[in-house]
Design goal:
Elements (H helix, E strand, L loop, with lengths): L1 H7 L5 H9 L14 H5 L3 H9 L11 E10 L3 E11 L4 E6 L5 H9 L7 E10 L2 E2 L5 H7 L1 E4 L11 H7 L9 H11 L1 H5 L9 H13 L5 E5 L7 H18 L2 E6 L2 H7 L2 E6 L2 E7 H6 L1 H7 L15 H8 L1
Parallel strand pairs: 3-8, 3-9, 6-7, 7-8
Antiparallel strand pairs: 1-2, 1-4, 4-5, 9-10
Amino acid sequence: MVSAISDVMAGLVPAIHVWALGMKNVDARDKPEHDDSSRLAAYPMTEIIDATRSSPTVVPAPPLLAVRNIEVVYDDVILVLRGLSLDVPKGAIVALLGANGAGKSTTLKAISGLLKTEDGEVTRGEILFEGSAIAGIDPDKIVRRGIFQVMEGRRIVADMTSLENLRLGAFTRRDREVDADLDMVFNYFPRLKERTGLAGYLSGGEQQMLAIGRALMARPKMILMDEPSMGLSPLLVKEVFSIIQKINRDLGVTILLVEQNARAALSVASHGYIMEQGKVVLDGTADELRDNEDVKEFYLGGAGDQRKSFKNLKSFKRRKRWL
């Protein structure tokens, strides 16, 4: 009898196995006040086994981009990133926040392969895109894999027209749908269709729209945006960030957004990281960061009546509080 029960129960939790074997010798006075044996017997043993074996194991989806403990050095001497790690899920907008010199732009250049142009290199850690290592790969090959960076300060070609700048974004493509994508870009940025002159004569907001449109022409899976609000009026900032959110929602393009305007960035992002001195000191959902007292004080314009003067504050004090 015991042998038969052991064979049936082999696939179940060991605790059930032990209980089943021990029930034969349990003295009446040792039984618990509420005996569950009758309830267990009411269910066929095959149903219990099937229910146990069919329990699904939930495996979280891997991030589209994973940065793992990277260090970046310029000119073989200057250490800028110190063990930085972050994840960007597929289809999400993730904000990377921090003050000037925190290492935000260097992080984007490490991902897009542009460190080589500034005598920088990733000396430690790994950068994975769709599960494949991309650290050290040439920038044009990274673009072909699906990552496009919108540089700080727009970096449009001033001596080319808006249309020529947009076509430049599609230089890695070999399909015949470039014209259709031009119409798509003009749908998001109708002003660009009206501007037929040289791009250098566009306003700051229009140049930013052109830079984002040029990125879309590459049909990227992920866009790295570096300070899209730089030099724009509050009204234009609101318009640009609204378009960024719409592009993410309509096209499913994943966006890693570097910004000093924390309030604007967290208004469109689902998750955020805060950097100081080359490493991440705080991360969380956008709501968690907005509600964090330190983030309110140092990035969102104070923490109500408890706001302190910035005159005597040092960055190490912020990091000490966060860590």
